[in-house]
Every structure is written in structure tokens, then in C-alpha cells.
């Protein structure tokens, strides 16, 4: 199955929720765990075990593992393996973007199933030119994986680049969205290539229907709500994979409470697609 087909099935069965696994020092402290490789592993593995089955996907934030060096990367490998063993899709939030052989190396690291860091999909930055993502896109196609491309992000600095106009009058974000849609043009169902569009962007005139998934961060702690998602995405809301991290993780460390919190969030976003 392609990533798009796997994700559509998971969203339909579990609800369109992606829970970020962000081992922020403050969160680990609130769980009674130290800001160390040992605390990182306890926190992350506890989260994976509690969230498996409650969400369509989990999204480890690579930076929070990288900050612990080689031991942190080893924990990330365990988290990826555990989530996939438990039948949960893994979207690795790495926001990689480069050119040529370097872009191919990133693709090999995260999208080739022979790699210990192989996941179902990654996030990628197109701001070196959309064509620079070709190695990641082609590697994803070859292995049934996916790529979520940054388009309209939830951070306040994003508009200075993403709202800028190109020579043909379109916005940079608009060209990214059009390029993602073109990757999915030949898909009869749900494409494997998606866009990242924040829940806090306010109004937009961009066409958000890319015939594939829309990874939507900014929900919860960053201020985005289910009503925002409904208003911003309109008919494309059926393709939204809502991403929430700190608001759900704050319900831990009790695994039953964490699981129940994720289930409730998944139900609330599934209801949006039915309206």
C-alpha cells in the first residue's frame, strides 16, 4: 500500500489525529523525568505505548532527540520501531531541505526501509526550490512512503516568505501547494504527498485541496482550534490530519489518561469531516 492509502485507512478507522512526540525538557520534568537520555527514553516510549491505537499517526520531533546526541538518536530509532510494531504510522518531523546528493542522503536516511530511521513520511522544506525535493519525492515513491511539504506554517515569521509573490503573481505558498497537487494528480484515491498548513494562519485564498493529506499543526498549545480548522479548510477538511503535541502530552504520564485524551481529540476532529 502507498503511504496515502495507509494514512487514509488509519484516519478513517482511528480519526484524523497525529500526536506529536516532543520530549521538551519542561514536559519531561512535569512527568517526573530527568532531561537526560534515560528520561528521554522513558518519556518517549511511554508516550508511544499509550498513544498506539488512539491516533492515526505519531510525529516525533527529531530535534528533541538530536539534542541528546548519539544516545538520543538511538532512542529515536527505538521510538520509530515501537510505533510501527504497534501498527501506528510514523511521520518524522525533520523539515529537511537541501540539494543534490545531500537531499538524497536525507531521503536514504528516513525513507529507505533498510535504514534504522526509516519512517512512513517526513516533513520537508521547499524553500531551496521545489525541485530540490526531487530525491526525497522519488525515494518516497519507490518505497511507498510520503512527504509533507511546508506551505503555510503556523509560526508568525512564515508569511514574509510564504506570502511573497512570484513573477507570475502567485504566492510562494500557492506555488508549493500547486506543486504538491501535481504530485498527486494521477492518484485515483488519496495521494502520498501532502502539505503542512498551520491552524493559526487565519484566512487564506489558497487552494488547499492537494488530493492528499494536509498536516495541520498549531492546534492546542499554539492556539488553533477545531473551529479554526473547519473555517480555514472548508471542503478540504476531509483531508486534514490534525497535529497536536503539548496539549495531549500534558495529560501524561498516566497512560490511561493520555490514551483517553488522544481518543477524545481524534473523535472531535473526525466529527469535522462529517459536517
UniProtKB/TrEMBL annotation:
Write down the chemical reaction(s) this protein catalyses.
Answer: orotidine 5'-phosphate + H(+) = UMP + CO2
- Pathway involvement of the protein, from the record: Pyrimidine metabolism; UMP biosynthesis via de novo pathway; UMP from orotate: step 2/2
Extract the InterPro entries matched here: Aldolase_TIM, OMPdecase_AS, OMPdecase_type-2, OMPdeCOase_dom, RibuloseP-bd_barrel
Q: What is its EC number?
A: 4.1.1.23
For this UniProt entry, the molecular function terms from Gene Ontology, in alphabetical order, are: orotidine-5'-phosphate decarboxylase activity
The active site consists of 95 (proton donor)
Q: Which UniProt keywords apply?
A: Decarboxylase, Lyase, Pyrimidine biosynthesis
- Which Pfam family is one of those matched by this entry? OMPdecase
Can you give the residue ranges of the Orotidine 5'-phosphate decarboxylase domain? 16-261
Enzyme class, UniProt record, top EC level = lyase
Family, as annotated: Belongs to the OMP decarboxylase family. Type 2 subfamily.
Q: What is this protein called?
A: Orotidine 5'-phosphate decarboxylase
* Organism (species): Nocardioides jiangsuensis
Q: What is the lineage of its organism?
A: Bacteria, Bacillati, Actinomycetota, Actinomycetes, Propionibacteriales
Gene from which the chain derives: pyrF
Amino acid at each position: 500500500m502507498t503511504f496515502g492509502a495507509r494514512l487514509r485507512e488509519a484516519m478513517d478507522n482511528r480519526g484524523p489525529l497525529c500526536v506529536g512526540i516532543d520530549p521538551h525538557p519542561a514536559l519531561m520534568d512535569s512527568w517526573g523525568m530527568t532531561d537526560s537520555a534515560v528520561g528521554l527514553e522513558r518519556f518517549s516510549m511511554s508516550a508511544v505505548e499509550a498513544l498506539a491505537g488512539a491516533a492515526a499517526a505519531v510525529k516525533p520531533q527529531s530535534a528533541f532527540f538530536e539534542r541528546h546526541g548519539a544516545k538520543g538518536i538511538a532512542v529515536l530509532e527505538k521510538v520509530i520501531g515501537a510505533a510501527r510494531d504497534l501498527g501506528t504510522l510514523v511521520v518524522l518531523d525533520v523539515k529537511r531541505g537541501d540539494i543534490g546528493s545531500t537531499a538524497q542522503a536525507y531521503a536514504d536516511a528516513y525513507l529507505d526501509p533498510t535504514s534504522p530511521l526509516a519512517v512512513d513520511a517526513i516533513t520537508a522544506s521547499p524553500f531551496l526550490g521545489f525541485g530540490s525535493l526531487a530525491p526525497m519525492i522519488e525515494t518516497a515513491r519507490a518505497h511507498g512512503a510520503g512527504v509533507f511539504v511546508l506551505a503555510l506554517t503556523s509560526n508568525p515569521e512564515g508569511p514574509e516568505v510564504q506570502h511573497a509573490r512570484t513573477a507570475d503573481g502567485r504566492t510562494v505558498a500557492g506555488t508549493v501547494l500547486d506543486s504538491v497537487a501535481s504530485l498527486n494528480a494521477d492518484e485515483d484515491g488519496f495521494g502520498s504527498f501532502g502539505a503542512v498548513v498551520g491552524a493559526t494562519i487565519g484566512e487564506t485564498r489558497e487552494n488547499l485541496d492537494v488530493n492528499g493529506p494536509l498536516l495541520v499543526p498549531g492546534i492546542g498549545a499554539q492556539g488553533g482550534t477545531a473551529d479554526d480548522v473547519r473555517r480555514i479548510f472548508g471542503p478540504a477538511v476531509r483531508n486534514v490530519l490534525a497535529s497536536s503535541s503539548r496539549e495531549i502530552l500534558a495529560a501524561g504520564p498516566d497512560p490511561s489518561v493520555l490514551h483517553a485524551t488522544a481518543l477524545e481529540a481524534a473523535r472531535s476532529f473526525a466529527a469535522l469531516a462529517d459536517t
